[in-house]
Design a protein that fits this description.
The chain is mostly beta strands. It contains two helices and twelve strands, in the order ααββββββββββββ.
Amino acid sequence: MPDHAPADGSPARASGPTSAELLDFVRRTATDTALIASLPLDPEGRTWVRLEGPGGSEAWLIGWPPGTGTGWHDHAESVGAFATAAGSLREDSLAARLPSGGWRTLELDGDIDRERELGAGEGRAFGRYHVHDVRNESPTEHAVSVHAYYPPLPLLRRFSRNGSVLRLEHVERPEDWN
């Protein structure tokens, strides 16, 4: 589908859903109690099921056992959103635009740390190169969430963090996840 400028003179829209549209999708999907209940939960490791996302996006239903998390990572050039369907998730993120490539270690400046607690029904959208760590801090309860990304994830960059130093540890590609 080609991009066309709307008749009202506003800028042409790129193809694919926006992060706001992905947020709307994950929030609506997180209220589907039958879908949420259908996810098999493992007591030790995260579980996931691929979903049909809007407009060619990649979407996932993810189960989080107590104490599990993602570690620091980004979704490269994809925009995204996630919503908690059950339990609670904590997101730590960096309020800074990082370079897209060409670095292995960065010294982070100033007050860039952000944290949020996302209970059932709460969600969040994010842009390209958004670095975050998402985890279920509950010692006893599973969490379940819905995630969507556009374009579908071309790669995932994993980082380590030591104080103000962020280090690129490795890059994962979709073929690594099978």
